[in-house]
Amino acid sequence: MNITENAKNIIDNCRFCWMCRHVCPIGNATGQERNTARARAFAVSMVVRGSTELSEVADNMYECSLCGACTNNCMTGFDPKVFVEETKTELVLGGLIPDYIRALLEKYMACGNVYGAEVSDEVKALYREDGDVLFLAGTDAVLKAPETVGVALALLEKAGVKAAFTKEQDTGYALKFLTGKTEETRKAAIAFAAVLNKYKTAVVYDPADLAMLLHEYKEWGIEIKAELISFNEYLLSLIEDKKLAVKKGDTVYTLQDHFAYARELDDTESGRKLIEAVGTSRDMLLCGKEANLAGHLIMAEYMPEVIKNVALDRWQNAINMDCKTVVTENPAEYVFLKETCPDGCRVLSVEEMLLENM
Amino acid sequence: MNDFLFTQILTELEDAVGRENCSVKEIDRATHSADFFWLSRMWVDRGRRMPEADFIVAPANAEETSKVLKIANYYKIPVTTWGGGGGSQGGALPVAGGILLDTKRMNKIYEVNTEGMYIECGTGAIYKHIEWAANEKGYATMHYPSSLTCSTVGGFLAHRGIGVVSNKYGKIDDMVLQMEVVLPNGDIIYTSATPKHAAGPDLNQIFIGSEGTLGVITKAQIRIYEQPEVRRFRGFLFKDMTSAFRASREVLQKFKPSVMRLYDEAETASLIKKIVGVSKPGAFMNIAYEGVKELVDVEEKILLETFAKYGAEDLGSEYGEKWWKEKITFFYPGHMMDIPQMFGTMDTIAPYDKIEKIYWAMKEAIETKYPYAKFIAHFSHWYEWGAMMYDRFIIDGEHVPQDPVEAMRLHNEIWTLGIRTALANGGVVNDHHGVGIKLGRMMKEQYGPAMQVFEGLKKTLDPNGIMNPYKLGL
Predict the structure, then answer these.
(1) Which residues of B touch A76 (CB under 8 A)?
(2) What are the DSSP E strand ranges found in B309-372?
(3) For residue A321, what is the nearest residue in chain B, using CA coordinates?
(4) Contacts of residue B45 in chain A, CB cutoff 8 Å?
(5) A347 min Cα distance to partner chain B (Å)
(6) Do A285 and B332 make contact, defined as CB atoms within 8 angstroms?
(7) Which residues in chain B have Cβ-Cβ distances shorter than 8 Å to A84?
(8) What is the Cα A169 distance to its own chain's centre?
(9) Do A70 and A158 belong to one domain?
(10) Which residues contact B411 (CB under 8 A, 6 or more apart)?
(11) CA distance B171 to B349
(12) Do A13 and B128 touch (CB under 8 A)?
């Protein structure tokens, strides 16, 4: 098995350590022993030692959301995501990916996205090439939560921002999730960088895309000339500059921290500042750096029930702390928290929250 | 087993728990084949496969568990119960194959009852999750072992676990009200509604510590406690362990600190120096005392006066607070012993008149016969009458045979010597990690004819001997 020494070191350290089990959103939703960083490391260590075949661990690698809760929990600093990603790449190169992953990749080749979905006419109607900034909604929002795109653009318009919004939305995140850091992912990234570089500033809606642009592109040496700013930060700047006139009310909002903001972008504050601009913030369990996943669109294509249960678990956290209005920062979590929203509770995206307080 | 019969049993198990909760996949069989037991880790490290269960079955509740046990009894196939898999004694290893019953689907937290001061939960709940549930209501479980985040409620009950604030709040066997248990024949029973009564012997204590050999605990009511108003720490350095034992015994006649951890000179100079930063020679002791502020003020006065009488150097609160923050860090990779080292924790417990003697006898026995072995210890759970010793042997990789059979031989020899020495000097087979397959052979040596009580229970409740074979010496 051709994986890096770094990955092997992580595997050998994680294979008998259960300390992060309690924070794995997938393991908590399934109760399956294999859905732990320990079990994944253990299984891959067996492949490395020749006591099982690589194909035997394939499904298990795709049951990891790469949310990094385990990484954040590790007191020593081991990052199980590293060996999961590298093992996925090995599976791809060895032609050993599960059929349901192959099907997603075939859709990607055919349609440009893993969902095999078409952009709706409503979203297409929002396309415009020119603008002060580029609004990058990302593939997930455009295809799976198109209503958030319309609301986000409407909010920007209210602030007097002319935002370009184009048909190119794929940062390469989905390919990276499914295949790891392969040549195909890199090529997708290079192609997307060319789109970005037509603009001075890009406002990135989905933190998973922003993390990809800031980290993986940099790792590959792909130059991004455009200034990248997260949607949250951009909204905060509009509020600060008085371009977005929001009113503070007495509603209590609870932020569903997205892992990419909290852990990959080191931003646990922007969402809370937005809440404080219009209401009061109340945290639930597993917030900030300890953010717990509440939805994953790609994984829902092949394990929908588990992802639904992940969202239900998150609702349980909210209910336990009497948090009735949950605010999301990412389209996947918006979709799944909405789908599972209990009676008496509601889900808002950050832009929806601001709009109801203008 | 032939394919036909195998498939027949599989379909019956699938009918009992649902097809998606019954697996024969290699990934599931393999990941349930090794736990925290050094021998299982070494075995797979050497590229060998541990014995695997044939069926991995995850029931959702007592009713489904009952169905599984009835099937197992009919076909006379072994059942090994698995919680988090974090045990160090091999108690959850399916060494005889058959069914591996994973409890983690039984993870429901039914109720946080702040009037009755307990949480009712399925025993597959991760303990940290019930701690969170208690915290969300302003309470705490006060069960904080190093495996808090990885082990289940059932796992702690099965082997009589303990946490770091046990001195004040008790061991897991002190923390349970009522339990639901599925007997090997599939009957679902409930223990007494309260743990204190005169309605005969305590059923709870028959099943707590039985390591899955007498049935499956499926639900439990676990005590919760008010969060302390204050929790204070104080580090001390004793010139030797004898004075520390005397001082601690005297304190414990007056009040119960929550944390009491005394480290021998070797552990003070290694682990404590590395993690907490104490660099002076001697025996480091960390004490925490907590509760209502006025009472804690009085306790602090008693503690300082008593320890001063025995010559303890008061190191202030800094080391204790650092230890509290880092108490789990010790157990993460890179801080903890790991393969290629060979190591083991031979925790035992005895009254004050014997415990220090046991320490020196075990240290001498192991370090004399195995001069390349390091023997270190701390004493971390204390009572008015005695204390437990958390003693470890550590052998660096260059002295550990590469051949797994030879490594197992050396490992088991050291364990036999250590535990025999503990027993000969008034100790017990184990304090809080349990027995498992690792120490089953020592049970008869400790209990002698008293073992027939356990054997009688086993024979009556599990006449086909299907429940967790080769564990607990049964």
Answers:
(1) 332-335
(2) 313-316, 342-345, 348-351
(3) B136
(4) 49
(5) 22
(6) no
(7) none
(8) 14
(9) no
(10) B38, B39, B42, B342, B344
(11) 13
(12) no
Please indicate whether, in this complex, the C-beta atoms of A33 and B102 are within 8 angstroms of each other: yes
DSSP state of A213: I
B132 and chain A in contact, CB less than 8 A? yes
Q: Judge if A76 and A20 occupy the same domain.
A: yes
Rounded to a whole number, what is the distance in Å from the CA of B154 to chain A's nearest CA?
A: 14
Strands A133-136 and A201-204: parallel
DSSP A244-257: S-----S-EEEEE-
Distance from CA of B82 to the nearest CA of A (A): 10
Q: What is the 3-state secondary structure (H, E, C) of A144-198?
A: HCHHHHHHHHHHHHHCCCCEEECCCCCCCHHHHHHHCCCHHHHHHHHHHHHHHCC
- Amino acid identity of A92? V
Helix (H, G, I), strand (E, B) or coil at B224: coil
Pair type for strands B313-316 and B230-238: antiparallel
Residue A160 lies in a domain: yes
For A214, residues 6+ apart whose C-beta sits below 8 A from its C-beta are: A228, A265
**CB proximity A17 to B under 8 Å:** yes
Backbone angles phi and psi of A114, in degrees to 5: -80, -10
Q: Say how far apart CA B321 and CA B444 lie, in whole Å.
A: 42
Chain A environment of B136 (Cβ under 8 Å): 285, 320-321
Tell whether A2 is within 8 A of chain B (Cβ): no
- B394 to chain A, any CB pair closer than 8 A? The answer is no
Q: How far is A321 from chain B (nearest CA, A)?
A: 7
A202 and A252 in a common domain: no
The CATH number for A199's domain is 3.40.50
B257 lies in the same domain as B195: no
In chain B, the residue whose alpha carbon lies closest to the alpha carbon of A47 is B47
Element (H, E) at A156: helix A146-158
Total length of chain A: 358
Q: What range does the domain containing B85 cover? A: 3-102
- Interface pTM (ipTM) of the complex? 0.94
Hey, is the C-beta of A107 within 8 angstroms of any chain B C-beta? no
Q: Number of A:B CB contacts under 8 A?
A: 105
Residue B150 in contact with partner chain A when CB distance is under 8 A: yes
Residue type, A207: P
Residue of B nearest to A51 (CA): B47
Q: Per the CB < 8 Å rule, is B124 touching A31?
A: yes
B-chain residues near A59 (CB < 8 A) = 27
pLDDT per residue as tens, chain B (474 positions):
899 999 999 999 999 999 999 999 999 999 999 999 999 999 999 999 999 999 999 999 999 999 999 999 999 999 999 999 999 999 999 999 999 999 999 999 999 999 999 999 999 999 999 999 999 999 999 999 999 999 999 999 999 999 999 999 999 999 999 999 999 999 999 999 999 999 999 999 999 999 999 999 999 999 999 999 999 999 999 999 999 999 999 999 999 999 999 999 988 988 788 877 888 999 999 999 999 999 999 999 999 999 999 999 999 999 889 889 888 888 899 888 999 999 999 999 999 999 999 999 999 999 999 999 999 999 999 999 999 999 999 999 999 999 999 999 999 999 999 999 999 999 999 999 999 999 999 999 999 999 999 999 999 999 999 999 999 999
Say whether both A276 and A207 belong to one domain. no
The first and second tokens of residue B122, run together, are 């399925």
Same domain, B34 and B88: yes
CA A191, CA A172: separation in Å to the nearest integer? 9
Task: Please count the other Cβ atoms lying within 10 Å of the Cβ belonging to residue B157.
Answer: 26
Same domain, B218 and B127: yes
Which candidate from B32, B105, B332 shows the least CB-CB separation from A31?
B105
Q: Which domain does A41 fall in, by range?
A: 5-96
Domain count across chain A: 3
Chain B hits for A29, CB-CB cut-off 8 Å, are none
What angle do the packed helices B404-424 and B352-369 form, to 10 degrees? 150
| Cβ atoms of A260 and A332 closer than 8 Å | no
